[in-house]
Amino acid sequence: MSRTTSTTRTALVEPVRVAALRIGLAIAILVSLAAFAVRAEGQAAPAGELMTVSSDAARVPFAVGEELVFRATFGGLPAGTARMRVYGIELVRGRPAYHVVFSIEGGIPFFRVRDRYESWIDIVTLSSLRHTQSISEGRYRRNTTYEIYPERGEFQKNLEEPRPTVANPLDDGSFIYAVRAMGVRVGDTIRNDRYFIPDRNPVVLTGLREDTVTVGAGTFAATVVRPTIKTGGIFAENGDAQVWFTNDDRRLPVMVKTKFSKFSLTLALQSVTTGATAAVASR
Asked: Are 257 and 266 in contact (CB under 8 A)?
């Protein structure tokens, strides 16, 4: 094979590889929706008022300052790094909300992926209130903001007309935290229709087996969960995606494995930083 042909093939394959990385990392959040129990309605707070977390906040296995760092490999090759962090608690339209950020960075020198997904999650109901996406993949750029109104049953994309949403909606960034708040056990098959864009439901989680897995962050006893989504692609209903959640109280997602085309995609947890509860800040 000539050098020119090899370079051309690399240029064609690399966008597919990094796109698969983005899909795989995002889906590790997306598919974790289903095992979540809805809490009571949230309590409003005056804009700009600082406060501690109220007693009616939902019990969750994470805290402000927690950060999870993942390493991705695609077809056995390094494919990038992902980070999930609970940045703080902020007021969104008068409602205290966890501000969580999911960022992805990977690719090669001439094709880089730098994506950032942010979510604001009501601390009482754990419903989504706002979701933003900042996408940078090679020459492609996109910035999108979703304002989500659970009390009105609507969401709004950028400045478009409002559209109907589901009860107690969850966005891409809030799913992993929702499933951690509840947990999926071996033998469970849980269907849920809480993704905030209705026609992308349902998400189904199946608890497959218990396993012990070793990743950069350590060795963990885990429950292996298979996610399926009502869509095509690598996480379709006939796919073979699996996610490892630890069996301790933190329920950390420590590994994700799936297949894209003829290659395997693996996300492995490299490090964990624990956090502590903080005061509410307005936004």
From this structure: yes
Task: Tally Cβ neighbours within 10 Å of residue 143.
Answer: 11
Beta-sheet pairing, 263-273 with 111-122: unpaired
179 half-sphere exposure, CB direction, 13 A CA radius: 36
Q: Over the stretch 171-185, which tens digit does the pLDDT of each residue have?
A: 877 777 777 766 789
Name the strand (E) or helix (H) holding 120. strand 111-122
Q: How many residues does the chain have?
A: 283
Q: Which two tokens stand for residue 157?
A: 């994309």
- Alpha-carbon distance of 46 to 24, in angstroms, equals 39
Q: How far is residue 145 from each of residues 31, 68, 255, measured CA to CA in Å? A: 21, 24, 29
pLDDT of residue 228: 78
pLDDT at 139 over 60: yes
Q: What is the pTM of this model?
A: 0.77
**Rounded Cα–Cα distance for residues 32 and 60 (Å):** 15
DSSP 236: S
At which residue do the structure tokens 């095992």 appear?
35
Measured in degrees and rounded to the nearest 5, phi and psi for residue 23 equal: -60, -45
CA angle 129, 32, 119 (to 5 degrees): 25
Bridge pairing between strands 77-92 and 203-215: unpaired
Residue 180: enclosing H or E segment and its boundaries?
helix 175-182
